[in-house]
Amino acid sequence: MQPVILGLLASFVGFSSSFAVVLQGYLAMGATPAQAASGLTIITFSMGALGAWFSFRTRMPVAIAWSTPGAALLVASLAPAGGFAAAVGAFIISGLLIMLAGLWRPLLRAVEGIPGPIANAMLAGVLLDLCVSPARAVGVVPWIALPVVLTWLIMLRLARLWAVPAAVVVAAGLVAVLLPLPPGAFSGAAPRLEWVWPVFEPAAILGIGVPLFLVTMASQNVPGIAVLSAFGYRPKAGQVFLATGAASAAGALVGGQMINFAAITAAMCAGPESHPDPKRRWVAAFANGCGYMAIALAAGLAAAAVAVAPPALIQAVAGLALLGSMAGALRAAVEDEGLRIPAVLCFVTCASGLSFAGVGPAFWGLLSGLAAAAVLRRP
Asked: SS3 for 66?
């Protein structure tokens, strides 16, 4: 039962520690609460189903997760002119690019060829605004935000893995006790999928779809493969890219966004904590996938709870969940002295909120960093 228990634990921690980021990303793109709940449901179920299938088929701990950095990118981006339908069109393009990376090796090599410091600088710039949200929330709703932040900090010292889930529980309890809930707040919490007709706008594709693809590849897929390799597993990445890209593109029609190789969850399932025998660790990833499929039934309830909470509080919880990611990205962005200036330029451009020709800051930040690296590169 050891790998089963650990896999189910990983699914609970993975969902509770970052679902607020995913929902905040949907709302930033102009999704209605029903569309956000639909998107959360489909990506939770899809990543569970694919994770269970690949683990069972390959007998390797292949864990699949949503793109938390991708969701943070959506939070930091401007809502497209065409509304959520245009965002859905960008999600579809991003999924198709993932599929193309699985079929056409030159594209995958091109993404892997982006200098690590610049890719991490883009991620850090995208995360900055969300990571300062806890401080903002303390100023707006201190009687709720301060206990949440203190809970997170204490649990970070005692049990790091449970820091964000504990903060989520405290936030939910304080909202339930201190804020009056509107009648029928959870009446629409049953699982339900909402169809969205996509609109393909060039500005949304460049400003959302392409950066979402790059962030997902650089911050999720490549590290996820590296984690499995570190434990001696060599899954066929192309097959996983094809499946996750197809599921992302198809799921976008009901609000879904990117799913990909897991990194942190994969480390939990593939490590010796799940089972002493490496040949039995696939059971943990299989149980993790089954746990996500079960949690998908409650995704609507999670979305309904977020809808009645103060927006500043939800952003604060999401920011706490991403502080570790931002710290790692900042460290990796500046460790190479030769690329430090291009990386910092990429970071400040992404953090500036620059929007030009309808295209958001992530694209321009990456472009500025790559251009500066090309100009400053020594022969």
From this structure: strand
Within a domain: 10: yes
User: What is the Cα 130 distance to its own chain's centre?
Assistant: 13
Identify the bridge partners of residue 340 per DSSP, sorted by sequence position: none
Distant-in-sequence, close-in-space partners of 157: CB < 8 Å, separation ≥ 6: none
Residue-wise pLDDT tens digits, 293-304: 998 888 877 777
Residue 345, SS3?
A: helix
Total number of domains in the chain: 1
Q: Which has the closest alpha carbon to 122: 317, 360, 363, 289?
A: 363
Residue 179 resides in a domain: no
Name the residue type at position 160.
R
Q: Residue 237 carries which side chain, given as an amino acid letter?
A: A
Query: Do the domain assignments include residue 298?
Result: yes
Enclosing domain of residue 355: 2-133+194-308+325-376
Burial bucket for residue 162 (CB in 10 Å: 0-12, 13-18, 19+) = middle
Percentage above 90 pLDDT, the chain = 31
pTM for this entry: 0.77
Q: 243 pLDDT band (50/70/90 cuts)? A: very high
Query: Token pair of 338, please?
Result: 């030769």
Residue 272 · residue 232 · CB < 8 Å: no
Chain position carrying tokens 């990456």: 366
Is residue 45 within 8 A of residue 292, CB to CB? The reply is yes
Q: In angstroms, rounded to a whole number, what is the distance separating the alpha carbons of residues 220 and 226?
A: 10
Please tell me the distance from the alpha carbon of residue 52 to that of residue 285, in angstroms, as a whole number.
Answer: 7
Q: 356 by DSSP, 3-state: which?
A: strand
Q: Which residues of 82-102 are buried (b: 16+ CB within 10 A; e: fewer)?
A: bbbbbbbbbbbbbbbbbbbbb
Instruction: Report the alpha-carbon distance of residue 291 to residue 268 in Å, rounded.
Output: 14
User: Does residue 65 sit in helix, strand or coil?
Assistant: strand
| Residue 54 to residue 43: CA distance in whole angstroms | 16
Q: Residue type for 317, please? A: V
